[in-house]
């Protein structure tokens, strides 16, 4: 979604993950980051919102941009830096979720709660 749509999230352009890369890498990254991201339930709800065929294209593009930044290993602050690694991801995810919060439905949030419960 982020690639090829003319959407340039924070100037990363074609360096962002595509929808298929987000689908492929999301759960692996989420599992690694879960202890460092206090609102993982909202991140997972955002993932489900991005995957929802009824979500408007602009909201999907915003979410795929943020989720692409989250799943790819290149960052302003590398994820392996203890204590700081996910701070830039947190900022990007927070901004994206806030921008599209009206499109994250109770169904997305319930799917997130169910998925997180199943993975614990």
Automatic annotation (TrEMBL):
Pfam families in the record: DUF1232 (PF06803)
Ranges in a coiled coil: none
InterPro entries linked: DUF1232, UCP031804
Membrane topology field: Multi-pass membrane protein
Domain DUF1232: 59-94
Top-level taxonomic group: Bacteria
Any one GO CC term of the record: endomembrane system
Transmembrane segments: none
Principal cellular location given in the protein's record: membrane
Compartment(s): Endomembrane system
Alphabetical UniProt keywords: Membrane, Transmembrane, Transmembrane helix
Protein name stated in the entry: DUF1232 domain-containing protein
Organism: Mesorhizobium hawassense
């Amino acid at each position: 979604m982020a690639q090829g749509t003319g959407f340039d999230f924070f100037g990363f352009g074609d360096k962002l993950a595509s929808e298929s890369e987000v689908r492929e890498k999301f759960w692996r990254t989420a599992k690694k980051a879960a202890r460092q991201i206090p609102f993982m339930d909202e991140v997972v709800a955002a993932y489900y919102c991005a995957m929802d065929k009824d979500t408007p294209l602009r909201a999907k593009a915003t979410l795929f941009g943020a989720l692409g930044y989250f799943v790819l290993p290149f960052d302003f602050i590398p994820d392996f830096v203890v204590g700081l690694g996910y701070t830039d991801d947190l900022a990007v995810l927070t901004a994206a979720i806030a921008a599209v919060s009206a499109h994250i439905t109770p169904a997305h949030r319930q799917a997130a709660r169910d998925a997180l419960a199943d993975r614990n």
